[in-house]
Amino acid sequence: MTRGFKIPKRVTTEIDFEGEVIKIDAEVPEQEPEPIPEDKKLNIIGKKVPRINGEEIVTGKAKYAFDINLPGMLYGKVLRSPHPHANILNIDMSKAEKHPGVRAVINLNKKNVRYVGEEIAAVAAVNEEIAEEALDLIEVEYEKLPFVVNINRAMEPGAPRVSPDGNISKPRTRERGNIEDGFKEADVVLERTYKTQVEVHNCAEVHGSVAKWDGEKVTVWDTTQATHGVRRSLAKTLQLPESNVRVINHYMGGGFGSKLGLNVHTVAAVNLSKIAGAPVKIMLTRKEESYCVGNRPGTIQTLKGGAKKDGTITAFHYKSHNNGGVGSGGSNASPIWDMYQCPNCLIEESSVYTNTDASRPMRAPGYPQGTFSVDLFLDELAENLGMDPLELRRKNYTTKNRGGTGTPYSSKGLDKCYELGAQRIGWNRRNKKPGEGKGPIKRGIGMASEIWGGSGGPGTQLDFRLITDGVVEIRCGTQDIGTGTYTIIAQVAAEELGIDIKDIKVMIGDSDYPRSGSSGGSNTAASVCPAIRAAAADIKGKLFAIAGPLLGENPEELDVGESKIFVRNNKSKSISFKEACKQITEGMLTSNETRGPNPKGYAFSTFGAHFSEVEVNTLTGKVKVIRHVAAHESGRSINILTSENQIQGGTVQGLSYAFFEQRIMDEQTGKMINSNYYDYKTPTAMDTPQIEPIIIDSVDPVLNNLGMKGLGEPPRIPSHAAMANAIYNAIGVWIRELPITPDKVLAALEERKEG
Amino acid sequence: MKNFTYINAKSIKDAVESLGKNWNESVVKSGGTDLLGELKGMIISPEKVINLKTIPNLDYIESTQDGGLKIGAVTTITKISESSLIKTKFPVISQAASKVASPQLRNMGTLGGNLCQRPRCWYYRENSILCLKKGGSQCYAFTGENKFHCIFGGGPCFIVHPSDMAASLISCDAEIKIYGRKGERELELNNFYLLPRENVNRENVLNPDEIVVEIIIPPPKNNTKSIYIKQSIRETWDFALCSVAVSMSMSGLKCDDVRIVLGGAAPKPWRSINAENELRGKMITETVAESAAKAAVNNAQTMRDNKYKINLFQNIIKSAILEVIKS
């Protein structure tokens, strides 16, 4: 009996998002297109397809938030705390309000500030200079309080309190098996401490927002990884109906996790705009970018591990203290927990609170830190066991998560990464005895493994239209954070419909379009692309319903390719795609089909292995990476160019983490003293080696209708660890603290000489 | 950045007459590569900025009658690094120029500006910290983060002088010509620079109403060989962690005379008399080079984070001496 409506299926899916497991509850379709067979010859998917909007980007036609200039627009600036810890006794804004050119001033009503850069008030003025002058005119009376910015200092007894509950959070633990039993079984037990620095995101495009009111409705151009997420949070914060808020982000110059949430300056821009009755733009400065909008926590990690003579790992005990500023230190443990077979494992992780700005997710949060400890540890273990480091990894290979004790992976191509990566770098050329090279300049080769999520999931909604001129319009509230989302969406639609990519118009980055998720956790591609394919397949069926009668064939027997619709068993019987579209009597065909849930009973991860060859000058402590091979398995690659792009970029960020970047907090003033592009070092082209990406040719058999996984974060995870292992192979001395700068290399060499 | 009056100077005299009596009043701009950072970072906020680039005939590299060289103050670093005259006669200067900053900065930056650039100390460059050099009461680096700071000549401020050009020019006994309200003066470039104990706020003897107009390099002594070695974190766009300029006149393998000048070592380009004394009159062997390198760091005073400079200096000084005799 029908009641005049149908109840759709809803499924809750668990996916990895920025190192955390989150649940997505979403409507899913009754059925999906069959997965594309692995051996099917494809025309656009899996090829080197240049960005469809590359020209717009490089010629400056593409509009980033920074480029939005509206008539009568004002410029906003944020007053930030100059003190690392203080009570605010009084704030007087009257002088700023009276300053000529100032149109609005708001007090954020803070009673207490806990880091240099914490927001206190904001102003909007007719230009940036006047806005800055107005900030100087806001009089704030502070009561300075004791502070601590250094992780070691914060852990000392009697350290100034950052959090009322103390500076060290109760450890979050994970445990399986019994580590004591595991250590008893072991022939070799080692314990080592590894340290990593605080790294700031330093996106090429700084954070910023432009707010414009139109009656009760507000539009915000925002630099965000979460077009719909920011709309929802902003509506909630401002207590506005969600439908009165629109967020636009057509182009963005990188987020790396720092642009996932709603920012204080965004709310300030909206409020200032309301008061002033004019649009307001707030773009942060490079300086603010360095100490106000997040970072990757620094860590002190201790890893104890045991193995049998044959290399079988018997136990890991991992303890970590993570400097999350006034926020969470996050978790680094997953690579230890999941990567290598290990039945007994105990993880204990604490956040350490300091008077620095709160950490935010940063490209594979926690994993580069955890990988630095476990992959250096494995190399040291291998040496103690007299084994080849790669052999030790193969010995402890697992096809199930939780170190072989959990759920089987839907696919895992790490073995192929090992094989092809080792071959490409020439693994057998490495020093048999670390440091054996002659002369002051020594070469070495090292490697490290990568694991990450990136399954994607359901919940992407879209509006897919085929117009009578044969052009496809896709509207979807996902966003392109610089990774090439526009292009891969167009590729999938073009492949499914057998037409030219030029006929696909992709419109994303607007909350007026149907909802899609945040771009985080390497989930965008594998969430959105299968949904696009489902909608394209749906449209294809609808077009076949028109083309069938035209060809005098059963629509079920039709297929597409080379911009034609043809009879599957008689290719010569065909009609051009555009010709068929002309017969769409309604003017357009539409679809809102989407992808289904991820199947139950599997763990979904991406894998990779990096191999690095370095040259260490033992006289100067300078390390030069000569070659770097980065092999990744992420299921089917939609676009070899964008995949290689991610691998190159991730590796360079890893290189930067290995040798250059480090936030320096001055303990005397509580200020960051290298909040600029010169003092906060990142590599130049001359510091960057030849990077050779290897994309493992594979298709996940069950995960989604394209057999694909994500690749945004994986390449960021292992490169610095591979480089550090290569340094050991070159000089025979361990450097267990990042960044590996000449002073550390010289000190380590000196210590060995003395020892 | 605060507003200021911008003056395009028409002549040296015009520039000098536009200059104020103190540093808050006016500054000069040549390439602007250092100055703009200071202005935009609000390290300084002068009332007037005087552009020297509009002065005719201040951009030249010329041979002098005695076989030396004269270089105009607004000559770009690129021009110096590409000059075949300099490359042949004074390799050390050419090499130093080619290692300054990055190609873009070398295209803009000038010799006068390079010699007069302000320190890179991160406390000095952080506008919200009032350090000793900026009129405050303490040197934060001494008690704080001092990885890039000095091992010689420190106190009460512990900067290092950032100029590559200065170290290389001093190794060639260069002189500097200054023009001011009271007229012209010429002094040895080595004496142009000051230690913080002489003047904590400035790095050289220049008065607020004076500008650098020319660098004069005397003819090299017979059979002089020279080299500049620079170590930095990055391969380009970086200041020296440690650098060394060596100019040595030789008879066969015997060192007749030598200048060894260190960069990244002290608040001024640091002539290492100790090292020079170890070499003068001796046959250059590996042992001699090593003892000179050792002598160079003999009386260094390190702080918490800059001990590595001892090793680094020793190694690069030794390498430089052994390299120079091969050149």
Helix content of chain B: 25-40%
CATH H-level superfamily of the domain at 224-326 in chain B: CO dehydrogenase flavoprotein, C-terminal domain
Provide the domain count of chain A.
3
- The CATH homologous superfamily of the largest domain in chain A is named Aldehyde oxidase/xanthine dehydrogenase, molybdopterin binding domain
Chain pair sharing the greatest interface: A-B, 31 and 34 residues
What do you see in this structure?
With 755 residues, chain A is of the alpha+beta class. Chain A has three domains: 30-55 and 456-591, 2-Layer Sandwich (Aldehyde Oxidoreductase, domain 4), CATH 3.30.365; 65-145 and 202-291, Aldehyde oxidase/xanthine dehydrogenase, molybdopterin binding domain (Aldehyde Oxidoreductase, domain 4, 2-Layer Sandwich), CATH 3.30.365; 407-455 and 601-754, Aldehyde Oxidoreductase, domain 4 (2-Layer Sandwich). In chain A, 26% of the residues lie in helices and 27% in strands. Chain A contains 18 helices and 30 strands. A seven-stranded mixed beta sheet of chain A has the order 5-7-3-15-12-13-14, with helices on both faces. In chain A, helix 10 crosses helix 11 and helix 16 (640-659) crosses helix 17 (719-731). Chain A is globular, with a radius of gyration of 27 Å. Chain A starts with 8 loop residues before the first strand and ends with a helix. The mean pLDDT of chain A is 97. In chain B, helix 5 packs antiparallel against helix 10. Chain B has a domain at 224-326: Enolase-like, domain 1. The mean pLDDT of chain B is 97. Chain B has a five-stranded antiparallel beta sheet. In chain B, strands 9-10-11-12 form a four-stranded antiparallel beta sheet, with helices on both faces. A three-stranded parallel beta sheet of chain B has the order 1-3-2, with no helix packed on it. In chain B, 31% of the residues lie in helices and 21% in strands. By secondary structure, chain B is an alpha+beta fold. The radius of gyration of chain B is 19 Å and the shape is globular. Chain B has 14 helices and twelve strands. Chain A binds chain B through residues 82, 129, 619-622, 659-660, 664, 666-669, 671, 673-676, 678-679, 681, 683-684, 686-687, 741-743, 746-747, 750, and chain B through 1, 3, 37, 41, 102, 120, 122-123, 125-126, 128-129, 140, 143-145, 147, 231, 233-238, 241, 305-308, 311-312, 315-316, 319.
